[in-house]
Design brief:
By secondary structure, the protein is an alpha+beta fold. It contains six helices and 16 strands. The protein has a single domain, classed as 2,3-Dihydroxybiphenyl 1,2-Dioxygenase, domain 1, CATH 3.10.180. An eight-stranded mixed sheet has the order 2-3-4-1-13-16-15-14, covered by helices on one side. It has an eight-stranded mixed sheet with strand order 6-7-8-5-9-12-11-10, with helices on one face. Bound molecules: zinc ion.
Length: 310
């Protein structure tokens, strides 16, 4: 049983319209699902990914309108790292972000910046050999497009506390000294999970912070993953049906909320591939509330349609 790298990363936004503009128009990702939070259907859950809505490229946001800005601290993912194809792509992105008034910091084969709400992002030149997971955005030359997740970085004052769960239960492979840097790799793809020393200030969940990170599992393994994590002594949510995938949630010892999610059935189970994300989609149990929900949620722009038209 093995995990196929990162499945998705879910974060919090206080401003859904600006969030769509940044991830779709500026970063060139495709909105692959526009739905509501299954635990609070009055607010959005937005999914951005590659053209096919693949696990491995899926950045999601829970909208809490007007949420106060948060700050990453101990036990929180503080940076999400994406792959790009070359150093020329980093030059392209530095210039594009600059044109949007966003600062970025170039360091060799890496470009660090933050989204408009302060969420830490980084692009690194892809040396993984994994198939690239890209969206085709009208504004982004294909060779410079994001290629899916490289990994995620977390703050922890004591990453050794997480080592047993990562290594023995989840099958992460230690890199370097075996405490701070990990790789999780399956047959199709992999990604890294790394710890950085935590800042002194406490973390504050809020807009611009990561809520949880999900790892990709084969569909038939999800029950065994739940058993295995439970046997390790961690408390899990049990199996949760997220409609587009099935999930198990638990907290890793450094404090980060982990999810293991199945690769299927995926985002095309209720919308055709060519129309993913264009309209509000509700899980079947929420359909009776559609009229009410549509009356409450904020109207969203469709930056991709606007770009194609211009
Ligand atoms: Zn999730």
């Amino acid at each position: 049983m093995q995990l196929e790298g990162i499945h998705h990363v879910s974060s919090i936004t206080g401003d859904a319209a600006r969030n769509v503009d940044f991830y779709v128009r500026v970063l060139g990702m495709r909105m692959v699902k526009r739905t509501v939070n299954q635990d609070d259907p009055s607010v959005y859950h937005l999914f951005y990914a590659d053209e096919a809505g693949s696990p491995g490229a899926d950045m999601t946001f829970f909208e809490y309108p007007g949420a106060r800005p948060g700050r990453a601290g101990a036990g929180m993912v503080h940076r999400v790292v994406f792959r790009v194809g070359s150093e020329a792509a980093l030059d392209f992105w530095a210039q594009r972000l600059g044109g949007e008034g966003l600062e970025s910091e170039r360091d060799g084969a890496s470009l660090r910046f933050a989204d408009p709400e302060g969420l830490g992002l980084e692009l690194i030149v892809d040396e993984s050999g994994d198939p690239p997971l890209s969206a085709s955005s009208p504004d982004i030359p294909a060779e410079h497009a994001l290629r899916g997740f490289a990994g995620a970085r977390t703050y922890s004052p004591a990453p050794e506390r997480s080592a047993a769960l990562l290594r023995d239960t989840l099958g992460f492979a230690p890199q370097g000294d075996g405490q701070r840097d990990w790789e999780v790799r399956g047959d199709q793809r992999g990604g890294f999970y790394a710890y950085d020393p935590a800042p002194e200030e406490r973390g504050v969940p809020g807009a611009g912070t990561v809520h949880h990170i999900a790892w990709a599992a084969y569909d038939d393994d999800i029950e065994r993953w739940n058993d295995r994590v439970t046997e390790s002594g961690a408390h899990t949510s049990g199996l949760v049906d997220r409609f587009w995938f099935r999930s198990v949630y638990f907290r890793e010892p450094s404090g980060v909320l982990f999810e293991i999610a199945t690769q299927g059935p995926g985002f095309t189970s209720d919308e055709p591939l060519e129309h993913l994300g264009e309209t509000l989609v509700l899980p079947p149990s929420f359909e009776p509330l559609r009229e009410q929900i549509e009356g409450i949620v904020t109207p969203l722009p469709n930056p991709r349609a606007a770009s194609s038209a211009s």
